[in-house]
Give the backbone structure.
Amino acid sequence: MAGRDSAKGIKNSGNSKVRRRGLVVVGAAVGAFAAAAAMATGSAAPAKADIDTLLDPIIQPLITSLSDAIAGFDPAAATDLTSWSDSLLSSLNSIDLGAALPSTAEPVASAALPASSDPTTGTYDIPITVQEGTEPTVQASIDGSADQTLLVDTGSSGLVIPSTDLSLTQLFDLGIPTGINESGYSGGVDYIYLEYNDATVDYGDGALDTTNTPIDVEILSWPTSFSSGSPLDFQQFLSDNDVTGILGIGDNTAGPTESPLEADGYEGVLVDVHNNELIVEPTAPTGGDTVSGAPISSLYESVNGGPPVEVSDDVDSGGVYGNIPSSLDSGVTPGTTISVYDNAAGTGTPLYTYTVTDTGGVDTAPTSTSGTSIDSGVEPYLVEPIYIDYTDDTMTFYPS
């Protein structure tokens, strides 16, 4: 799954899920942002008369974006949305956030951090579970939260969770946010998030514990499309894929920020979905074929042994079944073999190869796309380990 600027998104399964109404998401965002703003400014929470001044610069650009999207098919609804936002800000003036939020004169004590002696030189094996046949996931607790199911996504970078995954106390314990930004996934949502740099993360029930870890906490989201089956918000976007957050571990991706493993000083990670392991280790295993770019690399794709076509391949563990250039997709049916090489001649052992299947009505063929920028999907990771090297931005493939 790549970020909005890289073109691919995770699967929208279309299953019937509980959908959160937009007003609930806005309410959560207001509370989280107001708390963060109070800490960031070093002052008490805003008084009643000040809250619209605090939130208006955040909410109005979002409302403008949503109104523009809606106006294309219902101008009246766009007008109603603008009026609703004005009413919301006005009504929030009656809320005394100063009584609800702790004063910065009495800061919340941070949890004690475990001692560490250069943990980045070690090797750590985090168990992977594959959800729905296409989504590799790991379990992690963030700042003492309940275990989160995180999509292991080489196609993005940054540990992203919704604010609803954390209690208000845990949000305060994260300290002062270092930034507030907008991002999105082309699978269907844009979102506003707060950046924190000092979280503690427990991966795999003690397999790896990190401190001073950067995380991104979503506080407000909205759909990029109102077509049937599109998620209404970030929470539904995640739940449609049986996850509660995204662990983006790619290197040369569109973000939204940086891989938490790279930021914590770890030099690389072996994504071995085939053997249900995410192995954080400082050097790549011996052998294998190394290419520049992690996960986006210039490679060559061949269908059923035909002439390889040069592609910019996002080797993306979160990309479901991926896509393929339209110039190659005419023969992609169940039974088709797709191979990817590091040379235009298509010689030697492919970096990865797999056969398209149709099992129980599920066709694993990649989706046709224009141009030559593609997404591998999860298939390469299902058949072999791939090492991402943060030090020199390379990938190493280990074909069987």
Observations:
- The radius of gyration is 22 Å.
- The CA atoms of residues 144 and 168 lie 12 Å apart.
- The chain has three domains: 22-100, 125-280, 289-397.
